[in-house]
Amino acid sequence: MTVVGAALYALIGGGALLALVRLARGPSLLDRVVATDTLLVIISAGLAVHAALVRDPTLVPVLVVVSLLAFVGSVSVARYVGGMLLRSRTGDGRDLGLPVAAEETEGRS
Amino acid sequence: MTALADVVAFGCLLAGAVLCLTAGLGLVRFPDVLSRMHAGTKPQVLGVLLVMVGAAIRLDGWANAWMLLLVAAFQLLTAPVSAHLISRVAYRRRHVRRDLLLVDEFTGTGHQDEAYRGDEPGDAPPEHPAARPGG
Q1: pTM of the model
Q2: Range of the domain at B96
Q3: Which helix (H) or strand (E) holds B83?
Q4: pLDDT in tens, chain B (135 residues)
Q5: Which of A52, A98, B14, B106 has the most CB atoms within 10 Å of its CB?
Q6: Rounded Cα gap, residues B93 and B90, in angstroms
Q7: Mind telling me how many Å the CA of B135 is from chain A's nearest CA?
């Protein structure tokens, strides 16, 4: 039992440390967003593993909050990066909006 | 019966933990944003599902099981949305190693920005080869 617990914590801790390495080294902001998303998922998996090992259901509502916060954080940072366009094809710096599908562009030209 | 349930639960927990470790390895070793996202979404869906099944078996009681099912459902609903947003922005902001792509249906259709100042990664290949300094 304790051996399995130690192996579980070692695996999850190793994954979290490697995600932290990418979070520190990541050359761009989007790499860091992906790393943060994965890190939050790994943290929630660690909380669930702890709750399962000690049979303590106190941490279960925290998992709901963490999973929702991960979604809100990654989506808001992704939209912020998408708004950082300096000069787009519309010429006035506005966002292009949704990209047109490829077959739609072919039919237009 | 409880011993069998414990074995099944620890099997699920171990599989989820291994997926967490592979996600970390893929995040460190893969070359660009899309492939890192491919590695990072492994524990987001399958790993979280396995860990939640294991925890629901260990924490007996329907209230905990329903709340863990809620967490898994949130992950299944929100992971595609955030992945879509991040990959769309990554494609348009030159975070994608286009020389590693096998199929790129968006080439020359104007879905990239024309100005790249800002947040492109340091190892990104030049988009227009004529604009390379000294080339």
Answers
A1: 0.77
A2: 2-114
A3: helix B62-92
A4: 688 888 999 999 999 999 999 999 999 998 888 888 888 888 888 999 999 999 999 887 888 899 999 999 999 999 888 888 888 888 777 667 777 777 777 766 555 555 444 555 555 555 554 444 443
A5: A52
A6: 5
A7: 24
Locate B25 and state its tokens: 């390895």
Is A39 within 8 Å of A45 (Cβ atoms)?
A: no
In chain A, positions 58-87, which contact chain B (CB-CB < 8 Å)? 60-61, 63-64, 67-68, 70-71, 74-75, 78-79, 81-82, 84-87
In chain A, residues with a C-beta closer than 8 Å to the C-beta of B89 are: 30, 78-79, 81-82
User: Considering the domain boundaries, does residue B127 fall inside one?
Assistant: no
3-class DSSP state for residue A19?
helix
Residue B78 to residue A69: CA distance in whole angstroms:
11
Taking the C-alpha atoms of residue B135 and residue B123, their distance in angstroms, rounded to an integer, is 17
Say whether B71 and A44 touch across the interface (CB within 8 A).
Answer: yes
Whether the Cβ atoms of residue A76 and residue B81 lie closer than 8 Å to each other: no
What ipTM score was computed for the predicted complex, to two decimals? 0.78
Q: Give me A27's structure tokens.
A: 């050359």
SS3 content of chain A, % helix, strand, coil (to 5): 75, 0, 25
